[in-house]
Amino acid sequence: MADSSFRRYRDAAANAEMNVVPLVDVMLVLLVIFIVTAPLLTHAVKIELPKASSQLNLQKPEHIEFGIRENGELFWNGERMAFADLPARFQAAAGRQPQPELHIRADRLTPYEHVAKVMSAAAKAGVTRIGFVTDPGLAP
Predict the structure, then answer these.
(1) Which residue, 3, 25, 79, 110, has most beta carbons within 10 Å?
(2) What residue ranges do the domains of the chain occupy?
(3) HEC sequence for the chain
(4) Can you name the CATH fold of 63-135?
(5) How many CB atoms lie within 10 A of CB 118?
(6) Alpha-carbon distance 104 to 51, whole Å?
(7) What integer pLDDT is reported at residue 41 of this predicted model?
(8) pLDDT at 7
(9) What pLDDT was estimated at residue 133?
(10) Which among 77, 98, 89, 90 is positioned nearest to 127, based on CA atoms?
(11) Residue 73: its pLDDT value, please?
């Protein structure tokens, strides 16, 4: 008798179907929660803003073209200069309103030390807008 009940369980195939009813129930509850809370999240206060007119400020800030050659020569807007004169020039530029942008153009083989010294002098003087100019045609 024990043998016949054992055969009954052994011959029964395993139920390999997934029960998705609890998953559907959870998804429906989440959907209802989102439907109820969504209008609360988009609550906006209606304000009547004041009317004013203004003109666009199309004035572009001036920029300084700063060149550095491979041998360490420095150029301020095409004019050759010594490194000792940089702090005074950078302080004068930093004091102008609006502050000019510093565009650094360095030769491809210029040691980074020369560029770093110029950037450090500009930062110490208060020049905050510094950019590097490259030639897009030479990209590999």
Answers:
(1) 110
(2) 63-135
(3) CHHHHHHHHHHCCCCCCCCCHHHHHHHHHHHHHHHHHHHHHCCCCCCCCCCCCCCCCCCCCCEEEEEECCCCCEEECCEEECHHHHHHHHHHHHCCCCCCEEEEEECCCCCHHHHHHHHHHHHHHCCCCEEECCCHHHCC
(4) Nucleotidyltransferase; domain 5 (3.30.420)
(5) 20
(6) 43
(7) 74
(8) 62
(9) 87
(10) 90
(11) 93
Distance CA 77, CA 83 (A): 14
Amino acid at 5: S
Global confidence as pTM: 0.55
Q: Which amino acid is at 107?
A: D
* Token pair of 30 as six digits: 């989440």
C-alpha to C-alpha distances, 31 to 4, 23, 46, 56, nearest whole angstrom? 50, 12, 29, 47
d(CA 101, CA 131): 7
pLDDT digits (tens, 9 = 90+) for 22-79: 899 999 999 999 998 887 777 667 777 778 777 776 677 788 999 999 998 999 999 9
Which token pair is 138?
Answer: 């030479």
